[in-house]
Amino acid sequence: MNILIVDDHPLFRHALIQAVRHGLPQAQIQEKATVKEFYEYLESGAEPDLVLLDLNLPGASGFSALVHVRAQFPAIPIVVVSAHEETSIIRRAIAHGAMGYIPKSANPSHISEAIVEVLEGEIWLPANLPTQDMNDACSNDEAILAERIQSLTPQQFRVLMMVAEGLLNKQIAYELDVSEATIKAHVTAIFRKLNVQNRTQAVLAIGALKITEKTI
What we know:
This protein is an alpha/beta fold and 216 residues long. The chain folds into 2 domains: 2-134, Response regulator (Rossmann fold, 3-Layer(aba) Sandwich); 140-209, Arc Repressor Mutant, subunit A (Orthogonal Bundle). Helix content is 49%, strand content 11%. It contains 10 helices and 5 strands; from the N terminus they run E-H-E-H-E-H-E-H-E-H-H-H-H-H-H. The protein has a 5-stranded parallel sheet with strand order 2-1-3-4-5, sandwiched between helices. Helix 1 links the parallel strand 1 (2-6) and strand 2. Residues 145-210 form the HTH luxR-type domain. InterPro entries: CheY-like_superfamily, EvgA-like, NreC/VraR/RcsB-like_REC, Sig_transdc_resp-reg_C-effctor, Sig_transdc_resp-reg_receiver, Tscrpt_reg_LuxR_C.
């Protein structure tokens, strides 16, 4: 059993490792701290049996990483592990393809229980979550944007997240070790797929996937 933990806080990664080993003592556990490391690991051909994914990660914007990874690697079950405990956020995560949602305040035994249930094909949610239709958790604008994010290639997704961070084409080219012309081509393709005209509109568009409390 191969479990991947993606969280930028070393102490919480350690706590998750202990929780995983409590329920699955023989599991092989890998750790990644950023979206960049996460993608590099998946693109290397690795096939984890389960991913435990934090929502607040360097290189991502809200639900964007969850949405895109689910599209690129649909066979890999993802459980969100987050400090956000609002019902609407939990429902949005499930609507975007998560197989479970574990609050970071959860008892370690619940974390182990969640992992085992998801590996058995079940969806795991906190016990006190109101019973509602998860498919209706997202607004129409958010659902449309999620589909558009799913259409991006992994490199286009990286570029979009860097655009959202305010980096210029020259800076993105340096970070990704490609030419500025290549980045310009990616940006043009991103604008087309997101149905926007410029960087400002692109950044505003992905705001629909930010983690904000909504009344659903």
